Amino acid sequence: MNKHLENIPKLPGVYIMRDGIGNIIYIGKAKSLKDRISSYFNADSESKSTAIITSMRKIDYILCASEREALIIERQLINKVQPYFNAMWKDDKSYPYIKFSLQEDFPRLTLTRKKLKDGAEYFGPYPQIFYIKKLVRWLVKLFKIRPCKLDFSEDKLPEEKKVKSCIYVHTDMCYGPCLGKISSADYKNKIKDIELFLNGKFKKLADEWETQMSELSSQLKYEQAQEIRDRLYALQNMSERVMISEITQNDINKSVERADSINELKQVLHLKHMPAVIEGFDNSNIQGTNAVASMVRFTNGIADKKNYRRFKIKTVTGADDFASMHEVVFRRYSGIIRKNEKLPDLILIDGGKGQLSAAAGALEELQVLTPVISLAKKNEEIFFPQKDKPLVLSKHSAALKLLQSVRDESHRFAVSYHRKLREKEFLNDK
């Protein structure tokens, strides 16, 4: 992580923290960007910083002329984006904590929404429960913490017949305290580093594990040394996954606009899921010659060119847009199903009811349930399968602009492929 931090300037600015799929989760300002961002990875990080680190994957920053300008930009962006963590620290009553039950002989990690004075350590609260659940599962696996809810002590173990078939013990995913396989003192010693992790003291933890691994190796305790090595690798992955880059305020505005367009699209189309991945199709031919089709993919509102596809029409003779669309859509998603790849969240067809019906027919044959719509260029009408009346959005609609971008790009890509084939055919005829 240090090599990334070295390039951050000691200047006023605004920093933007994102999760694994690019969502902005926290926005802050700083008199010195380098000092402030570095503090999140400092051994003395507070629980607030640790909460962010568990969800964060990327940091962007905007350089400002002064701390006052940074404050103004920070407020503008927070009001516009309303990130999870900024909202949480206004009212954190309903968010879950990670509970580390140190008062028990064999402590556990659990999630709770109540912070009690019961001798346990509490970390959080955290707004992104999806990530925190994953984190707890990861820590349980990494440290071999008992995942069960059994209430027992070192002096009063559960009946053997109730626990002897536990899969976690038999697969070496738990130290087996319920069967008396480990003492309370040894168990607590093996999991004591969890506190360092949850307090954000990653560097101290890494240094300790490096020392432990060397000592165990020198004592020829290779199996235990390998266990510490695996923890080190996992910890390095936790810290190295964060990328840092400088952006402009215009970049942030564009990012916010893309998010707005995706949110609006979900609402106006009444979709069950956010249309983060959209695939668009178009056909191209002149008098039935060199019939081709294109498929483009947009991810989070951005053209994902490495996942574009081109198709030569194989089963259709002459200029038949409907049959060509059916062929291409069928070929695309039969391939997706065969390779067990992820389907898009929305499919967009360039055209009207005819092209849409052809595409919908192909999807129905394949039993693909992904929503499909078409966008007709003349009046920018959005058509739906099984509905006669199209949807017409305002020309200023962010959702419409996103659909237009996908439609226009699929058209451009199809025409460029068709032109390329015609030029190749012309050269061969000479």
From TrEMBL:
Q: What is this protein called?
A: Excinuclease UvrABC, endonuclease subunit
Q: Name one GO molecular function term.
A: excinuclease ABC activity
InterPro entries hit by this protein: GIY-YIG_endonuc, GIY-YIG_endonuc_sf, GIY-YIG_UvrC_Cho, UVR_dom, UVR_dom_sf, UvrABC_protein_C, UvrC_RNase_H_dom, UvrC_RNase_H_dom_sf
Q: What is the lineage of its organism?
A: Bacteria, Pseudomonadati, Elusimicrobiota, Endomicrobiia, Endomicrobiales
Give residue ranges for domain UvrC family homology region profile.
257-359
Q: Name one GO cellular component term.
A: excinuclease repair complex
The keyword Cytoplasm appears for this protein: yes
User: Which GO biological-process labels does this protein carry?
Assistant: nucleotide-excision repair; SOS response
Q: Which residues are in the UVR domain?
A: 203-238
Domain (GIY-YIG) ranges: 10-87
Q: What keywords sit in the KW lines? A: Cytoplasm, DNA damage, DNA excision, DNA repair, Endonuclease, Excision nuclease, Hydrolase, Nuclease, SOS response
Q: Which organism is it from?
A: Endomicrobium proavitum
